[in-house]
């Protein structure tokens, strides 16, 4: 049930570079052995010596090299082709050497046997005279060629090659529900994946949308918007890809490299916590599985006000070989670009998040992640502990869940009041593959993103079910049904339901 995540996209670029180098190496190996290159043999491929250049179907008298070809055929009789010359086709060094050797042998033979016309003898006399006159120059040229070949070999051995791949994704959601008319939600992302040495990644992501909203987010936006897609405390709306600005903006910009095979470091000006921590094989990709943020991440561990906008920071990942333990850590500041004269901004000011995660994989079926987050958001100090678990029942089914317990204290500038609360967040779900139709992906889950008696008069509860059809490698269609009770922890908001048809185009 595992699949590609945003934070692992450097593997795509690395695989692409690996495949490219593999192809080049294969060609090099094939060309390094004359016996494996049939074109180096003048008699291969059924080539025959032609009596006239006019017999070549792809050579015309108007071609710039026509006279040269005509001379090789009529004077020396050494041009081989059948039935085309293919003048624009590349040739290997073996082919060039074979053709040159054949030419020289033919000329020497003609001279030695006194066979050939006057043109051949005059050409030979001219060549020998030029060789004598320019002997010193030719010697110097040979030395320069030897030096150049040596330097070229050195450059090839230490060449610096950059490979960049473009990936794009368009999500279009047709949605409607209670308290809202039918609408369209759209989000577009372009990824530039650049690799310098096959083990690194420079990720540049651009994003734009249509500022679309759905029934659930509309209800959550009517007041303070505590738990909507841009919520103060959580991203627990209906569709994660709502409320995306129409202006094209930089969404992610970071560089990830590996000092060792087991250790990865990422640094950048635009990073999101969800790219590096709190992953899950069944609920972690809004373009493939669940669409609500309540099932994509633990809202206490991945702080929405930082994850949604991104920030400058760094992340590490340590995965020792032959070990069942993986350690991760990150520090991201959403307002790192703000002037240092403001005490509430800057790299270590409001808002920032520091997180640690330890993943333990006792078997191929079970994965456990223990998490801790320390953050300052809207002048509120946050400390939270989390558990993220998944268990594969079989090849086609698995269960997952997240649990978080936090401590929020301080004067919250968004709510404009002082409070101290200990919120709890949880979610559980089931992921299924090949249900009825082979190649499909389905899931159903329930969550309560922010349980607390200090904010609101009820507890919001999210339900979601989806059924993903992969129509091709580039297109998927997913019917989604969602229900949210007590949106934004307000019992006056009642029950909101909505349906959506998510279409994802990838290229």
From TrEMBL:
Top-rank taxon: Bacteria
Record-annotated SLH domain positions: 52-114
Pfam family, one: OprB
InterPro entries: Carb-sel_porin_OprB (IPR007049), Cell_Envelope_Struct_Comp (IPR051465), OprB_sf (IPR038673), Por_som-like (IPR047684), SLH_dom (IPR001119)
PROSITE patterns: SLH (PS51272)
Ranges for region Disordered: 21-48
One cellular component (GO) term of this entry: membrane
Gene3D superfamilies reported for this sequence: Carbohydrate-selective porin OprB (2.40.160.180)
Coiled-coil annotated residue ranges, if any: none
GO biological process, one term: carbohydrate transport
Transmembrane segments: none
Biased composition (Low complexity): 33-45
One GO molecular-function entry: porin activity
Family stated for the protein in its record: Belongs to the OprB family.
PANTHER family named in the record: OUTER MEMBRANE PROTEIN ALPHA, OUTER MEMBRANE PROTEIN ALPHA-RELATED
The protein's name in its UniProt record: Porin
Organism: Brunnivagina elsteri CCALA 953
Lineage, uppermost ranks: Bacteria, Bacillati, Cyanobacteriota, Cyanophyceae, Nostocales
